[in-house]
Write a structure and sequence with these properties.
With 143 residues, this protein is an alpha/beta fold. It has one domain: 3-Layer(aba) Sandwich (Rossmann fold), CATH 3.40.50.720. 42% of the residues lie in helices and 13% in strands. The strands form two sheets. It has a two-stranded parallel ribbon. Strands 3-4 form a two-stranded parallel ribbon. Strand 1, helix 1 and strand 2 form a beta-alpha-beta unit. Helix 2 runs parallel beside helix 3. The protein starts with a strand and ends in a 6-residue tail after the last helix. The mean pLDDT is 83.
Length: 143
């Protein structure tokens, strides 16, 4: 059983975000494996909306065992050339969104008495990468 929450659409500082078609493709792939899925659209920048979507999935599937906080966006540019919106967009999704995900999930994991959380990073969490200062700032290695 799987519950998935997708953020789609775009932020002003991005050229492309995930689409409804991407979410539909995920649902189809899971269903082809003869598995159940609860798919909802939520924004990791909105803690209440994210928690409501997660609560709905947990309610339909009967619990939460594993959380994968994998929301992420990317945009590029020299630090001095980033727009005023590029920095907060990046940190709001890639860093704060991970915290919102954990905060929404922990009560369910505690109620179950067990579970696991996976936080993804990237090579940018290990070393600097040119043209993405805002990205590597939001991708610390998490243990």
């Amino acid at each position: 059983m799987l519950s998935t929450i997708h953020l789609f659409g775009s932020l002003p500082s991005l050229t492309r975000g995930a689409t409804r078609e991407d979410l539909d493709e995920t649902v189809s792939a899971v269903e082809r494996l003869d598995r159940r899925i609860v798919a909802r659209v939520a924004d990791v920048r909105d803690p209440d909306g994210l928690a409501a979507a997660l609560d709905e999935g947990v309610g339909e599937l009967g619990g939460l065992d594993t959380v994968v906080a994998n929301a992420g966006i990317a945009s590029y540019g020299m630090s001095v050339d980033l727009t005023e919106q590029m920095w907060p967009d990046m940190l709001d999704v890639n860093l704060t969104g991970v915290w919102h995900t954990a905060k929404a999930a922990v009560p369910h994991l505690r109620a179950r008495g067990a579970g696991s959380m996976v936080f993804t990073s990237s090579i940018g969490g290990l070393k600097g990468i040119m043209q993405v200062a805002h990205y590597v700032s939001a991708k610390p290695v998490r243990t």
